[in-house]
């Protein structure tokens, strides 16, 4: 796995030595960033199910300022920290905690996001509650972009302020691009 574009282009990233994590492929990552970017003028990123930290690192490489990468699995958290260190990233914060605790922690810190990457365990129905929490707790900046990777058959409930903008199917998964309208 590697960084596709930007400041850290072609740099290799480590992947967790665990079957509990499935990194987004380079091809899907490239397609994703072509859909939402491809480059950014700053912004704060939340990668809530970080895995290797690859999606958040890609956003940093393409111009975002700050990254919070969350994973509760030890191997994933360790890999995120190693990747941050390998690239000598600044303003990138690995958090080893469950996603609910992370959302509460980030809310209490008053952090608002411009980009949110959600690649949760497939088919567990976690996305709707996460999106609702982000809206209810005003954790999204105006025009925030939320990217959800989920099984293609999963439908999301309508949440006031969150608008589905694009859907792109890749095999068994779909990339869903939402925008927040304040």
Please tell me about this protein's structure.
By secondary structure, the chain is α/β, with parallel strands linked by helices. The chain has one domain (27-180): 3-Layer(aba) Sandwich (Rossmann fold). 29% of the residues lie in helices and 26% in strands. The chain contains 5 helices and 7 strands. The termini are far apart. The relative contact order is 0.16. Pfam families: Cons_hypoth95.
Write a concise synopsis of the structure shown:
InterPro entries: DNA_methylase_N6_adenine_CS (IPR002052), RNA_MeTrfase_RsmD (IPR004398), SAM-dependent_MTases_sf (IPR029063). Keywords: Methyltransferase, Transferase. With 182 residues, the protein is an alpha/beta fold.
Kindly list the characteristics that best describe this protein.
single chain, 182 residues, Rossmann fold, 7 strands, 29% helix, 26% strand, SAM-dependent_MTases_sf
Mean pLDDT equals 94
- Individual helix count: 5
Helical fraction equals: 25-40%
Task: Tell me the total number of β-strands.
Answer: 7
InterPro entries: DNA_methylase_N6_adenine_CS, RNA_MeTrfase_RsmD, SAM-dependent_MTases_sf
Organism: Faecalibacillus intestinalis
Keywords: Methyltransferase, Transferase
GO molecular function: methyltransferase activity; nucleic acid binding
Task: Detail the topology: elements first, then pairings.
Elements: H1 26-36, E1 44-47, H2 54-61, E2 66-70, H3 74-86, E3 92-95, H4 99-108, E4 113-118, H5 127-136, E5 140-151, E6 162-170, E7 173-180
Parallel strand pairs: 1-2, 1-4, 2-3, 4-5
Antiparallel strand pairs: 5-7, 6-7
């Amino acid at each position: 796995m590697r960084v596709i574009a930007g400041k850290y282009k072609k740099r290799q990233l480590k992947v967790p030595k665990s079957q509990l994590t499935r990194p987004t492929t380079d091809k899907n990552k490239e397609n994703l960033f072509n859909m939402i970017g491809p480059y950014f003028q700053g912004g704060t990123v939340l990668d809530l199910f970080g895995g290797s930290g690859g999606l958040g690192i890609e956003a940093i490489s393409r111009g975002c300022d700050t990254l919070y990468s969350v994973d509760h699995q030890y191997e994933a958290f360790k890999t995120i920290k190693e990747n941050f260190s390998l690239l000598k990233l600044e303003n990138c914060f690995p958090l080893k905690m469950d996603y609910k605790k992370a959302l509460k922690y980030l809310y209490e810190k008053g952090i608002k996001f411009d980009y949110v990457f959600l690649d949760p365990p497939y088919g567990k129905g976690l996305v709707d509650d996460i999106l609702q929490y982000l809206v209810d707790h005003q954790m999204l900046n105006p025009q925030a972009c939320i990217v959800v990777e989920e099984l293609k058959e999963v439908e999301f409930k309508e949440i006031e302020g969150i608008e589905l903008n694009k859907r792109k199917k890749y095999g068994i998964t779909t990339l869903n691009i939402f925008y927040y309208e304040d």
